[in-house]
Amino acid sequence: MTLTAPAKAVTAPRPPGLRRLWRAVSPYTYVAPFFTLFAAFGLFPLVYTAYVSLHRVELQDPGTMEWRGLGNYTALFGDEFFWTALRNTFTIGVLSTVPQLVMALALAHLLNHRLRGRTFLRTAMLLPYATSVAAATLVFAQLFGRDFGLFNYVLGLVGAGPVDWQSGTLSSQIAVSTIVVWRWTGYNALIYLAGMQSIPSELYEAAEMDGASRWRQFFHVTLPGLRPTILFTVVVSTIGATQLFGEPLLFEGSMSGGISHQYQTLGLYMYEQGWGFFHLGRAAAIAWVMFLLILVMVGANALVARRRSRKEAGR
Predict the structure, then answer these.
(1) Which of 197, 196, 141 is CA-nearest to residue 172?
(2) Residue 88 contacts by C-beta under 8 Å, 6 or more apart in sequence?
(3) Higher pLDDT, 81 or 11
(4) Measured distance CA(203)–CA(53) in Å, rounded
(5) Which residue from 64, 119, 142, 250 has the least number of CB within 10 angstroms?
(6) Rounded Cα distance, 244 and 230, in Å
(7) 147-179, pLDDT tens digit by residue?
(8) Angle between the 44-52 and 280-314 helix axes, to the nearest 10 degrees?
(9) CB atoms near residue 20 (< 10 Å)
């Protein structure tokens, strides 16, 4: 008795044209899920917000749209509170970003050296970032209290009078900026620390052999090596400052950002227009203005960095 193996099914080879088409299309199937999610939850809301900003839409009846063209934008630019919010956003952004990045750079430089408990200190750096915005803001609102706040108590010990942190223009902006600095300094410090550890140690050894002090090594080796990281943190901090919302909202619990709008940011102004006054069309226009501002500032930072790189390459 003899056994014969079953004959294998012969499949027809793909035509050369179809094979080339599959090789060209198949890589896109791997990235298709990302682009699908981005189009659904990123691109579509952006385009739809631009569409809503050209209409009169009220929160009580969001299905009814009345064409206004650029009317929401002209009304926006004619509102003095918009320019107040824009000015406050810029001021709070500077007051929070500059000290935050300088302190983060100093802390990262300190943690880059051999210290006892470095692992614990690096972990502790992220505790403010892990704290919720609501909890941090409510605690700082008590610390900045006019009558029983800790900061006014300390000022009283040195002979200074109490400061009304919530009513003053500059004082309230400093208070809100302090919350932002407290939450994000440790996060940026760890980013700078990772950038410092990627700088080759041979550069420090060569600088030390040339007689460079620690300060000279920091300014001539560390800072040039951290330039891409610093640019990244500046861009991210700029975007965060433009979108600042939780801290000013919870600092006093008012959508207007104080009695005279003294610390109302663009994010808070957009929330007030959309969910306080029910003008969804104008809120959408504010959102697009914020988006364009972010594009301009990020583009300006990239342009400055590119020109600086070209100058250094030409030396």
Answers:
(1) 141
(2) 173, 257, 261, 262, 263, 264, 265
(3) 81
(4) 53
(5) 119
(6) 21
(7) 888 999 998 888 887 888 988 899 999 999 999
(8) 120
(9) 11
Q: Where are the alpha helices (DSSP H) in 112-243?
A: 118-125, 127-130, 133-143, 150-157, 169-197, 201-209, 214-217, 223-225, 227-242
The C-alpha atoms of residue 250 and residue 254 are separated, in whole angstroms, by: 7
Q: Are 265 and 89 in contact (CB under 8 A)?
A: yes
Going by C-beta distance under 8 Å and a sequence separation of 6 or more, which residues neighbour residue 72? 53, 54, 56, 281, 282, 284, 285
d(CA 271, CA 60): 15
- Cα–Cα dist 230/117, whole Å: 26
φ, ψ at 85 (rounded to 5°): -65, -40
Contacts by 259-263, CB closer than 8 A, 24 or more apart = 259/167, 260/169, 261/81, 261/84, 261/85, 261/88, 262/88, 262/167, 262/168, 262/169, 262/172, 262/173, 263/88, 263/92, 263/169, 263/172, 263/173, 263/175, 263/176
Spatial separation of the C-alpha atoms in residues 221 and 234, rounded to whole Å? 20
All structural domains of the chain: 80-273 (1.10.3720.10)
Q: What does DSSP say about strands 61-67 and 55-58: parallel, antiparallel, or unpaired?
A: antiparallel
Going along the chain, which residue ranges are E strands? 55-58, 61-67
**Bridge partners, 304 (sequence order):** none
Coil, helix or strand at residue 69:
coil
Token pair recorded at residue 267: 């994010």
CB atoms within 10 A of CB 247: 26
Could you give the percent of the chain with pLDDT greater than 70?
Answer: 93
Q: Are 77 and 285 in contact (CB under 8 A)?
A: no
Q: Is the pLDDT of residue 217 over 90?
A: no
